[in-house]
Amino acid sequence: MMDSLVDSYGRKIEYLRISVTDRCNFRCLYCMPLAGLQWLPKEEILSYEEIGSVVRQLAPLGLRRIRITGGEPTIRPQLERLIAMVREIPEIEDIALSTNGLRLAELAPTLKCSGLDRVNMSADSLRRERIREIARRNVDFDPIAAATAAEDAGLSPVKINVVVMRGINDDEIADFARLTLDHAWHVRFIELMPVGEMRDVTWDHVVPMDEVLCRLKEISGVHPCASPARGNGPARYYRLDGALGTIGLITPLSHTYCASCNRVRLTADGRLRTCLFGEHEVNLRQPLRDGLPLEPFFRTALAGKPKEHELLRMRVGGLRALSQIGG
């Protein structure tokens, strides 16, 4: 194997998050303006073949894990084609999908057959009317049915991501936590990150994860446990007494996890972003389309990967919305 991909701080990079579209069929309060954004022109978006080429060139350098994101990735047609391409790359050990779950029941069997390993589903409420209010779309969505469909298709472990917002959905913390008692699912509570033009959520809506943990202790005994999946992810995991699943706490604000960051992000238009809330990007689309090898550009990007994100200083790299980079 060629020299591993290591940044200036000694962090080994093995995880690439790939945004396949900047569009979404939701307009969640914390993620995208209600009116949407100015969408990327089709010609600027990487084709599946181009994305496959990026992964094939980086895999021999140590890339092992892929996550497919958006926007909402399941609205891009024939997503199973990309998954199948990536699955054929020998070095890739894990392929995951982040989705709002709206099409999960429909697509889960096909995605599994194409080579998808597991799924993370965003679900900020278990109540249908509240889902519509948070998503700001007239959808009839049952997240429990979607998670069950993913599990039945063999996409395991199923992780359910909940952005906790004070006065909006924090009264459902216990309801989500109790899902882990009867299901081998992994519910992950995430601190709200008020960035860009999300004026409907503010710092007043942030619920620190230490507070969430205190609320969990009121439900049942809760104990630290190991991560349900391999990798160097950002969550701290806990288990309620007798639970089949786990509860994760993700704390980008109150307890950063930058020191162990092993990931970078590829935007839908081919920019390699080395930090979720940083400003540093390297254009891979142009050298890719010019037929140039990508390794030098990737190593240049890693040399500029920051030591820590700048969200706490209210610098978010010019983002208008989280949907622009796939979270």
What can you tell me about this protein's structure?
By secondary structure, the chain is α/β, with parallel strands linked by helices. It has a single domain, classed as Alpha-Beta Barrel (TIM Barrel), CATH 3.20.20. The protein is built from nine helices and twelve strands. It has helices spanning 48-58, 79-87, 104-114, 128-135, 143-152, 173-182, 209-217, 285-289, 295-303; strands spanning 15-19, 65-69, 94-99, 118-122, 158-164, 186-191, 222-225, 236-240, 246-250, 263-266, 271-273, 281-283. A twelve-stranded mixed β-sheet has the order 7-8-9-6-5-4-3-2-1-10-11-12. 46% of the residues are buried. Residues 312-316 have low confidence and may be disordered.
Summarize the structure.
The chain has 327 residues and is α/β, with parallel strands linked by helices.
